[in-house]
Every structure is written in structure tokens, then in C-alpha cells.
What we know:
Low-confidence stretches: none
Amino acid sequence: MAKTILVVAAHPDDEVLGCGGTIARHVAEGDAIYLIFMADGVGSRNGELEHELEKRKLAKNSALQIMGVSSSHSLDFPDNRMDSIPLLDIVQSLESLIGEIQPSIIYTHHHGDLNVDHRITHQAVLTACRPQPGNTIREILSFEVMSSTEWYGAAQVAFVPNVFVDISEHWLKKLKALEAYDLEMRPSPHSRSIEHLDALARHRGMCVGMERAEGFELIRKLR
């Protein structure tokens, strides 16, 4: 039976970095995939903002097409300044969309990421998805995003995956989607390089006897 899947990502590129292979696998299995982006990912940068926004939008559209995703929504909160917005406003915006989508599985950020937008996205998702009668959500998982999840430091609880999704047959789609975001990638030995992301997929896979995998922390699962 086809499932309805929602990915809530702080910025365009986080969805591919965190769970691009899993998204491609869900699509291949006939599940309905929806994406919500909280901020544009470039609004806090110096330079020609309109030009940067257009480049990121084109990259996002290309990546989603590669993965087979046809539906996404942008909430347009201020980039890297989501801590300036009352959490209630963020939660209410999410609640409305989640109510429309009625997902059974949600993927979102790890609570310990260095990036403030990632952390607030995690908190807003859990608040918007608090258990209530009639709730369609059966499972919530958090993903890792290189150059954020691994950079927070010892003061925060580390990302420790306990769910692994085999993406061996879907790695090439994730790779092509990452290449669509080429302006966000960095040369090796940066942790957000193609080389490292390939090594990470192999590492997560080999931890559980697979060629390549993506790791997740299970937050909640209802049977």
C-alpha cells in the first residue's frame, strides 16, 4: 500500500544531503512524496540576492525532478534567522500544511545540528506533530546533514542512527541531485564534498551489511 511521505527541510539542498536516496526509493516504491522548505538558504548571504535566489530555485527544481518529486512548498522564513520568529508562528504554518498533506511518515532535521534553522525546524516539526487523536503520522525520523550535524560539538547530543535505509540502487539519483546543487557542494576534504557524501553512504551501509545506506534517528513510531 502506497504511503504519504513528508520531508521538512530547513533549506533547499538539505533534503538531498539528508535523505535524497531515501526520497528516490520512496518514489520508486510508488509512495507520494511532499517537501516543505522553511527558508530559502541564501537570504543571509552577501551578494546579489535576487540572482542567488533564482540560482537556488533552479537547483532545487532540478534536484526534485531528478528524484521524481512533483510537490514542494516554501514557507519563506528568514534564512539563518528563524530564531527571530516566534515558534508559534512557525508551528502554525507547519500544522496547516501537515493537516492538508496527512502524511504517515515525516523526515526532518536532527535536534543537535549547528545550523539554527535546522534546530528550530526540528522543534517546530515535533510541536506541530504532537500526538493527538486522529493524527495520521505513524513515524518521525531525523536525518544528518553534513557541515551541520557533525559540527555542533560535545555540548550537544550526537547523531546516532538506529534506522538504516538501503539506497544502493538509488545512489546515482542522489548523486545527480547533489550535483544539481553544485554551488552548495565543496571540494574534498570538506565534509560537504561529493567524495565525503559517497564515503558516508558507504559507511552507513557497511555498518549494517549494505553497499550504501542513509542513517536516521527514530523519534517516534506507532504500530
